[in-house]
Amino acid sequence: MTGDFNIRDNLWDSDYLHHSIHSNLLIDIAESIHLGFFFPSNYIPTRYSDNNHNLNLVNDLIFPRYRLEELKKHSIHPKWRLVPNYALLMVTIPIFEKYIQTKKHMIVKDSDNEKNFVNELIKAIRTINTDSISDCESLEHMVQSLAYTMERI
Cα–Cα distance between 144 and 138 in angstroms, integer? Predict the structure, then answer.
């Protein structure tokens, strides 16, 4: 999760002396979906004032997923501004060379195979019990179970 949250706080802006209750709420929301705040590798403002009367601010934040260690390292690039006052935040995502085997299944449109597949899929979907979905893990399990069922049809 990333963006301009328009929350000034001493948690992420050392030039600002106050703590905001809105920061706590933002962090609580992020943690509820398994995201965490991490400092950039270069600790500088993300919004630059266009006049001398306003301070430069840290408003733009990145909340990566907790378990994705490689996404915890991000940086701010003030010279790469896409809009005049905002610095670009950049995350480098490593891509490893890996062969992923894929299969392609095809069913001829309006064929008996298509009708049978759709009917079996409808039956499988009707048997899904959504009462047991209480968190992301149970949702993921249910989706994987449906995918497994679709592969066997």
Answer: 10
Instruction: Verify that 6 and 79 share a domain, yes or no.
Output: yes
Residue-wise pLDDT tens digits, 40-51: 877 778 777 777
Dump pLDDT digits (tens) for 33-78: 988 887 787 777 877 777 776 778 777 888 888 777 666 677 888 7
pTM over 0.85: no
| Distance of alpha carbon 28 from alpha carbon 131, whole angstroms | 26
User: Strand, helix or coil at 147?
Assistant: helix
Catalogue the E-assigned strands of the chain. 2-4, 60-62, 74-77, 88-91
Reduced 3-state DSSP string for 89-101: EEECCCCCCCCCC
The candidate with the shortest Cα–Cα distance to 121, out of 101, 141, 150, is: 150
* Secondary structure of residue 79 in the 3-state scheme: coil
Quick one: 74 and 122 in the same domain?
A: no
**Joined tokens for residue 76:** 């701010």
Domain co-membership, 86 together with 121: no
- Report the helix count and the strand count for the chain, using DSSP H and E: 3, 4
